[in-house]
Amino acid sequence: MSALSRSDEPLDRLPGDVAAAFFFSDLRPPRGGAALLDWRLNGRLTRMLLDGEAEGRLGEHILVANNGKLAADWALFVGAGPAPARFSASSRKLLRHLLDVCRQAGFTRLAIALSAADAAEAAALEKTLAELLAEVADPDLECRLAIDDDL
């Protein structure tokens, strides 16, 4: 059974193989976990967005090596298309995609940041992620979750 734990620490302080966050095609500058990772990585994502090398489109992935400012070994920016207004069925698909990408890359210790508008949405996101991890049923998979309100 995969393990999920929620943390009050910010994404850049969560240990793991990878720190992952969504970035959206219609939000500039990046927000939430993506903004924090971008800042800690000296604006790498922002430069890619400005140079037209990244867009935030659904299915886009950017893997960046830790520059010594993250607790995780790698940072993964996952393009998610237009930002959803609230938790929805598309959020479940995005989370499933994120887990699949991490597992295909061989990461087993995940740190994930999600943004929620309120406590109810945060609880729904955490529940959905727990359900998806249970479906994966990988005993080696560990996930630490940070939830913020900066969507």
UniProtKB/TrEMBL annotation:
Pfam families: Peptidase_M17_N. It comes from the Bacteria. Residues 32-125 form the Peptidase M17 leucyl aminopeptidase N-terminal domain. GO terms for molecular function: metalloaminopeptidase activity. GO terms for biological process: proteolysis. InterPro entries: Macro_dom-like, Peptidase_M17_N. Signal peptide: none annotated. This is Peptidase M17 leucyl aminopeptidase N-terminal domain-containing protein. It comes from Trichloromonas acetexigens. The lineage of its organism: Bacteria, Pseudomonadati, Thermodesulfobacteriota, Desulfuromonadia, Desulfuromonadales.
